[in-house]
Amino acid sequence: MKAIAPGTVIFHRHRGYGVITAVNLLTGWISARFGSERRTLDLHLGCAQVSHACGEAIRFPQNAPHRMPQARLMEMVCALHAAGYQRLYLYNWPQASGLHWRWHLFAGPRNWMQRPLRPGWYGAGSDYNMNPVLGWGDQPGASATELAQALAAFDPDGLSQALGRDEDHSQWFAAACAKLLPDYAFSFEMDGFQSGDELPPLRITPVRLGVPPYSGATIGWPPGWARLWPHKRAHLMPAPKFALETG
Q1: CB 127 within 8 Å of CB 23
Q2: CA distance 61 to 63
Q3: Distances (CA, A) of 216 to 2, 64, 176, 228
Q4: Over the stretch 87-142, which tens digit does the pLDDT of each residue have?
Q5: pTM (2 decimals)?
Q6: What are the distances in angstroms from CA 226 to CA 12, 114, 176, 187, 197?
Q7: Are 64 and 210 a contacting pair, CB within 8 Å?
Q8: Which of 102, 195, 198, 221 has the fewest CB atoms within 10 Å of its CB?
């Protein structure tokens, strides 16, 4: 199915050609403006009266688009690893509300807890659902190759830091992609984990509506994660030390 995003030209059986002004990939509802009308019209993509401008039907219930970008990011990272950018890492985790997932790309040293922040290298599903782009000049529905080319053009210095070998992680990542793509993505979820406990399998989440729960082989955590907390105690932030004032 073609990309659905703000700016997509559509055709309505009774109103003619229009432009999508807002989209919600979770529900399939869009707002669109037709002709010279000032007010937008709310429509559902499952309605048979709406199609792409070229006449291609929009089959949202049968072929729903990605509601989260993690699988697309996994495909791009896997391709970049194969091209020699093995020091590129993808961190996924759920938001505190549990409604969406966040993602963060980083390059250079493989430090899962102290990841450098670069503009455009991180985002949230709550933003992606309304405008399915990743934030580095990419187009909605871009392929893995197109995403990598856009990232290289947007931040060549940042991507250059990913050049190098990290065979342990790249092999783990390629195996995870082979098991999960194109319908599932992994999530680093630490709720209830205590240091010294055995790490549970990674949580696997469908990236599109209508995909059944994951039932394949379990996936372990990436290399280096189990050694983050070597002591059998909870991973707590150190308590701040305050100087006592004496009168």
Answers
A1: no
A2: 6
A3: 29, 22, 11, 27
A4: 999 999 988 776 788 999 999 999 988 899 999 999 999 899 999 999 999 999 99
A5: 0.84
A6: 54, 16, 17, 16, 10
A7: yes
A8: 198
